[in-house]
Amino acid sequence: MAEQTPQPSNSEKSNDSMPNNMLGGASTISGSVIGMTLLGYYLDHKFGWQPWGVLCGGLLGVAIGMWELWKMMFSRQSSR
Fold first, then answer.
1. Dihedral sign (CA 66, 72, 78, 80)
2. For burial by CB atoms within 10 Å, which of 44, 48, 67, 78 has the most?
3. Cα(36)–Cα(69) distance, integer angstroms
4. Residue 71 to residue 51: CA distance in whole angstroms
């Protein structure tokens, strides 16, 4: 008969997933900022808008990243 391993309690599970939550939040913000800034850079060179495409893209990326992080934080708190 196979031995069963003890399952961690809820408090242990939340502590173990803390680095994953932080990594997910960091990648969400950095990905949106980098992606939108690159899109702005492309639009700058295509339409000759320097520096407005990069500026607007970067700011929009920060806003999107913060919004997604906000949703991520509060959806996990409400599911507890």
1. negative
2. 44
3. 16
4. 31
pLDDT digits (tens, 9 = 90+) for 33-70: 999 999 999 999 999 999 999 999 999 999 999 999 89
| Closest residue by Cα to residue 76 from 29, 19, 14 | 14
Q: Is residue 49 part of a domain?
A: yes
Burial of 38 (0-12, 13-18, 19+ CB in 10 A): middle
Residue 13 domain-assigned (yes or no):
no
Could you give the 3-state DSSP secondary structure of residue 48?
coil
Range of the domain at 36: 25-78
The answer to pTM > 0.85 is no
